[in-house]
Design brief:
By secondary structure, the protein is α/β, with parallel strands linked by helices. The protein has ten helices and 20 strands. Helix 8 links the parallel strand 13 and strand 14. The structure holds S-adenosylmethionine.
């Protein structure tokens, strides 16, 4: 992932891991990664509940902005149908009298919402929801993902506007340090009203009642040419406007790798640069991402680059049961929302052990300080191929 040369990455041990080592605890890391559990809630949300699992924003607790949002909605005694465009673990559905319409783009969040019996809808900003819910709910809730950039937050606001009927109310939450005031100004201009009604540390909640008026446009995708590929970067997708330096190092380092006719998995594909690059070199590619917006981006990248491949919306390998690959390529994530979390990256490496054919190879790139060698050693002997610009490329051949 992107980062400068001087990297200070504090790595939290996974729950249950032993001190002095990065090894996964017994019995099975996969079972632990897939496990649904009640989210840890702050005392002020007593009486409410949500499910969570690794990979969901806020895990093992809940997202701070969502916590404040729900507090405000509880105080307002909101009841009836509520459209939640960033449902995460379904916290809003536990408000008494609320019927939740849960929308999510994150595969881990969709899994917990389904587990909770909430029949969520997988969608991204700009999707038309009227086929699913012909009548719009009068209350809409949204947590701005300011950490996903300006274009994504504006797309979220436009989407919330399109889905709030005139006279309906939007509860908008976000982080002051991630541009909340700016986005509220934009939202208020579109809605015709709006004021910040709650503050807690850096978290904010605004309430907007929609007056008649046009919906702002959803920002267009960005794009670039790199490594022989035309990348289509939809708003909010990792490295949407230019190649990530770590990814570029990985692809430069693998320039001589023969991928012709090989089955290649791009795990955590983002906009699809790695997978499209492999397809252009004759590989049969599968691209996977937990984020639906990234899946749509990667599909567009394959098409724009004139190559074919399958793109799958999946929490790591949860939708890849029984599949095997010759090669896995990855620049694993180490953030979920605002926090540095390595559960997902560790699961990427565990998945490599499950998905590679014997003799198959995984190549991944990471910031130098990230302790990936030990979990990768479970796949096979680890070799550091190159170290440059604050990153390292690691390889393991499945024994
Ligand atoms: C560092 S980015 C790399 C993106 C792309 N491969 C590149 O090099 O530009 C990591 C990607 O992993 C995805 N991701 C995060 N959690 C995931 C999960 N649980 N399962 C699958 N993909 C995930 C993110 O959405 C993001 O696109």
């Amino acid at each position: 992932m992107t980062s400068g040369r001087k990297q200070k990455i504090r790595v939290a041990r996974p729950p249950g891991a032993r001190r002095g080592g990065d090894a996964e605890p017994a019995p099975s890391p996969r079972a632990r990664y897939a496990e649904m559990q009640p989210a840890l809630l702050p005392p002020r949300l007593e009486g409410l509940s949500a499910l969570t699992k690794p990979g969901v924003r806020g895990y093992p607790g809940i997202d701070d902005a969502q916590a404040l949002l729900v507090q405000v909605m509880r105080k307002d005694r909101v009841k009836g149908d509520v459209l939640d465009l960033s449902a995460m673990g379904g916290l809003l559905g536990s408000l008494p009298g609320v019927t939740l319409r849960a929308v999510e783009g994150s595969a881990p969040a969709l899994a917990v919402l389904e587990h909770a019996g909430l029949t969520p809808l997988a969608a991204v900003p700009g999707d038309d929801l009227s086929g699913h819910w012909p009548e719009r709910a009068r209350t809409v809730a949204l947590v701005l993902a300011g950490d996903r950039g300006n274009a994504y937050a504006h797309a979220q606001v436009a989407w919330a506007h399109a889905n709030t009927p005139p006279g309906g109310t939007l509860y908008l939450a976000g982080d002051r340090d991630k541009g909340f005031d700016r986005y509220v100004r934009a939202a208020s201009a579109a809605f015709g009203t709006g004021e910040t009604v709650a503050r807690d540390g850096g978290m904010r909640v605004a309430k907007l009642v929609r007056r008649p008026g046009p919906t702002p446009p959803i920002p267009e995708p960005e794009g670039y040419e790199a490594h022989g590929v035309t990348v289509v970067g939809r708003p909010g997708v990792f490295s949407a406007a230019k190649p990530d330096r770590a990814t570029a190092l990985l692809l430069d380092d693998l320039a001589d790798l023969d991928l012709s006719g090989r089955t290649v998995l791009d795990l955590g594909c983002g906009a699809g640069l790695i997978g499209a690059w492999a397809a252009r070199r004759g590989a049969q590619v599968t691209l996977v991402d937990a984020d639906l917006q990234s899946v749509r981006s990667a599909e567009a990248t394959l098409a724009a680059s004139g190559v074919t491949g399958e793109v799958i919306h999946s929490d790591v390998d949860s939708a890849l049961a029984g599949r095997q690959f010759d090669v896995i390529l990855s620049n694993p994530p180490f953030h979920v929302g605002r926090g540095v979390v390595l559960d997902v990256a560790r699961e990427f490496m565990a998945a490599a052990g499950r998905l590679l054919r014997p003799g198959g190879a995984v190549y991944l790139v990471a910031n130098e300080p990230l302790p990936y060698e030990q979990p990768l050693a479970r796949v096979g002997t680890v070799r550091e191929r190159v170290r440059a610009g604050g990153f390292k490329v690691l390889q393991a051949i499945r024994s």
